[in-house]
Amino acid sequence: MTIRVAMWSGPRNISTAMMRSFGSRADTVVSDEPLYAHYLAATGLDHPGRDEILASQPQRWEDVAEALTGPVPGDPAVFYQKHMTHHLLPAIGRDWLGKLAHAFLIRDPGHVVASYAKVRGEPTLEDLGYPQQVEIFRTFGGPVVDSADVLRDPAGTLRRLCADLGLTFDPAMLSWAPGPRPEDGAWAPHWYANVHASTGFAAYDPSPADIPDRLRPLVEAARPYYEELAAHRR
User: Fold this and answer.
1) pLDDT tens digit string along 178-204?
2) What is the CATH number of domain 3-230?
3) To 5 degrees, how large is the angle CA 46–CA 47–CA 48?
4) Is 106 within 8 Å of 128 (Cβ atoms)?
């Protein structure tokens, strides 16, 4: 029976590298941000590659949910779903989520906001996805991994994550060939240059976050959500 892993992450994290990691397993197929087209259609936001994204995925969340919980071509052992928590809009039903095994990739909000501010000047708490992450965790539970821990100790952190998900750790998760992959979303040309150039997880950078003063209240608003999840990290 296929284990369906829904990995929930906010933006400006290592979510695409984590998708590469799981996609390097011989027993795994991956889905890249399957709710993105619905998110754009529902919000009307103009993201890079909007038209291509809307054409590449179902725009009704019900169709996405059916695909994520229905038969998986090839009947793989693992179906890894890379989700952005801010894509889970309030109008999306939640019952289908009970059919998935949830996991959570978190990052300190100071670093998230500092990075996000470079690509969008005024992010909101909902843009960062922390409230949505906590909502899913409180309802369904699941292992929590911090991106800093992954970068410090990829093998140890991934080994614990796999154990919590009922999977055998595969050393192939630690490296991958550079370049694009067929499963990359239609937005990859706009956002995946660093991942396409990579062959594994980047080295951990202990530098403090350079947070613009105007965004410090946002960091403080996000921190209680982060700390609630971080208390459960593996």
Assistant:
1) 999 999 999 999 999 999 999 999 999
2) 3.40.50.300
3) 125
4) no
